[in-house]
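Quality-control log, excerpt.
Job 1 of 2 completed; input and output follow.
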Amino acid sequence: MLVLFALMMWGMSALWQSFPTESVAYGAFRANISAGLPEKSYQFYPNMRYRNRTITYTMESACTPKKQQDIAKALGMLEARTILQFKQGGNTSEITFTCADLRMLPGNQEHFVAGEGGPLDLVNTTRYVVILSGQVSLYRSEQCDTPVLALHETLHALGFDHSKNVQSIMYPVSECQQTLDSFIVQQINTVYREDPLPDLAIEKVTARAQGRMLSFDLNYTNEGLLDVQNVSLVVSADGKVVKVASLMSVPMGKRRAYGASNVLLPQGDSVLEFAITESNDAPELNLENNLATLTLSPQKTAP
């Protein structure tokens, strides 16, 4: 009887300790979305790039042999000075070179950010502004020995804005003596330094507990250059795993939300850790932004 009574008392004590009593709040986690972005950029938006360092292109048959030669020379100059490579492709090429005057066609005014070349389709992943496709129009004839026009418009398609440097190839008014300056070369080599990989990141977490029962809301995103199909979330309290969940896939640049309630916490004031990963342990651009740590807020009482 004494043993039975002791077991009953222990069970009641454990039940009482897990029964919701005091309501407590945790300090919210918010990611620094500007981390990793350059302080100064020569592009329309910071960190504009195509997914891969090898960029596919196509030239319309209407382009004369001279203009095709200018395009090839311009791409060769970029390959010689940067880590980029260019490869001729088919209908799915990323950059299309045309020799028609696209400025006069209805609906094209919004496509070109500057000049007669520019990005067409963009995806903002926060870490990058990914260019899915670009277009260059070379309807004007080249007057220089070097392919100044083709290089200028190709750089627009790579996301580069006009420069205030008169000697730069990106000065608004083209002159034969202008060159591919080192600032542009450095920017290209920096933005294409990383391999095309995904990058899961936790953007925001809020959590609250009623007694030992935890509820939380989490926002996550894919800031990388590839889609993520299988996502896992592990929630730990004081180093002990309290919940594991499979989350929705995340295409490049997309954001998702997930929430849970009635997650049993261990006794004591818990430090919460949220870890989000690709289920198959595929490599990512950055693993530091996969973690979020929450501690009890100073007031400890939730509204």
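Job 2 of 2 completed; input and output follow.
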Amino acid sequence: MRRLVLFSLVLATVAVACSDDSGPGRPAGTSGPTQTAPAEPPPSGTGADLGAVSVRLEPVVDLESATAVATRRGDERLWVTEQAGVVSVVENGTAEVVLDLTDRVTSSSNEQGLLGIAFAPDGETLYLNYTRVEDGETEVVAYEMGGDTPDPVSFRSILRVEQPQANHNGGQLAFGPDGMLYIGRGDGGAAGDQGPGHVEGGNAQSLDTLLGKILRIDPTPAGEQPYRIPTDNPFVDGPEGAEPEIWSYGLRNPWRFSFDADTGDLWIGDVGQNTIEEIDFAAAAAGGGAGVNFGWNELEGTSEYSGDEPPPNAVPPIFEFDRSEGACSVTGGYVYRGEAIPAMRGAYLFSDFCDGRIRALVQENGQVVAERDLGIEAPEVTTFGEGPDLELYVASRGEGLFRIEPV
């Protein structure tokens, strides 16, 4: 079986080079229409009883280095990306390749490859995020759907970002409850986010780069521009030099973020540097992360990393865990909103690439009120997925795709 042996989200200790985020297809600052989330989302985080949860992992299909899972409106199948550059649909225990981008994608390092997938809310456009074989830049592209499969001829490049190193590429794509496309970007790689050419604090703390951020765009073309910048993005009107695509910043490598299907709350698994893995949280009712600084690289979790004191506007993680028990790289998941496991409804599930334990936590009013190891694990957990019925899936590099089911 073909394997990409070095798939890992562990940091690479190589030197950081200077980054210039300008690239083909980036508008300098266009504005476009935006949709707004409901003014009064329902209360979040209530209902789960972790002590009553009893679950198992049910094998679904054997896949090679799955990196992301998505669903399409009106389609009961799962859509899965694999690191080497293929998109497959999973149905009835089998996976069928529907798009092969191996000639476009480089996966020569442990964190490069085809890393993200999302469908437009109407299901008519497929969006992918990968590292380019030519130069290692990360690129977001679109394909129009031709019936049940992507039309290869419809390829459209939306956004390219230069990468100074081969690691910390982020890669997550997700449409938020507002209908906008959110994009995860790591800090540019190497160790410590030195970020030369930017302010003290590296790329993640610098608003003049798209690295170390979650971006928010309207991927609808506007004339010759491949996408639009929503007029309510937090840095559209400055400060001077700030990139208007930025939604949140101060992130090292946001490896999997998601929106609570009931509340719209934003959850982020951000990979740590030396000792701390963190889960970040932004309530939809409090802006959903707009303009939020999550602290890296002046903070690693709640601990000081590079600064004498943390940024005054830094928002601490809702949860953190250290690497003393074998963890190395958090894999963010989803808040469970399915029906099969009532006691778990409202709990956020996550894991770690190295220890593979599936864990859950419950928040109320932005504070963790319960946390538990669910007693199931998989080797090298790379991503979670949410099915059309809101049941949850876990991808393992070693053993394929699983569904979380009640015992």
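Post-run check on job 2. The first helix runs from residue 202 to 205.
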